[in-house]
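In the current project phase, the collection of sequences with tokenised folds has grown. A representative record is quoted in full directly below:
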Amino acid sequence: MLVKTKAIVISTIKYQEKSLIVKCFTESEGLKSYFVQNAFSNRKSSQKIAYFQPLTILEIEANHKNKGTLEHFNEIKLATAFQTINTTIYKSTIVLFLSEIILHAIHEEEKNQDLFTFLETALLWLDHHDEISNFHLILMLDMTKYLGFYPDISQLNYDFFDLAEGIFSIFQSTNCISQHQTSLFKKLIDLKFDSTSKTFSLTERQIVLKILLDYYSIHLDGFKMPKSLSVLKEVFS
């Protein structure tokens, strides 16, 4: 089946010397994996290695056989040429980290238009703004809306957040984070991408990130801690 769709690059794996296996989150069909032959060749190609940087937004044409095997691109072009993401160390580090989060969070090979639109809009915002220290935290929390485990905020006045149940509680049960951690988590819930306040200190931001990673680990089967976590901490230290 011939498909024309936008696609966000999630991960790449080098195959032999010159080829790539590229996993994309497509707008029309969810997750798809593609084989790119001679991606590292010197000759000019429509399938340049530069197209497959983490979270690059592409417009693709491909034949989808839908047989559980690797698909192949017919044509590729940039849907959006990022202006700052690939040239700013803070932004490129965030993108690398989030690509791993998304890789381990999305498993279904089915269309999720709302999630795709959210990710595309968020990446465009990141590319055009400079105050981005909380971007990854806000994205991780907001993405849970589309993954099915966004916190129940109907009792936001309660002092403890239960990671397993996704609710706020009067009492600190086994699965609850501390009152201080919960207060930081509540601050995150109130944040938007365009919030001007820095909100968190470095230490507080690391606490909130750990809360989110633990929350993902509880609610997503097979979720793995990103290998780039240490790089993220180093760059933002």
Remarks:
- The chain has a mean pLDDT of 92.
- DSSP finds six helices and seven strands in the chain.
- Helices lie at 89-105, 113-128, 135-147, 179-190, 202-219, 229-235.
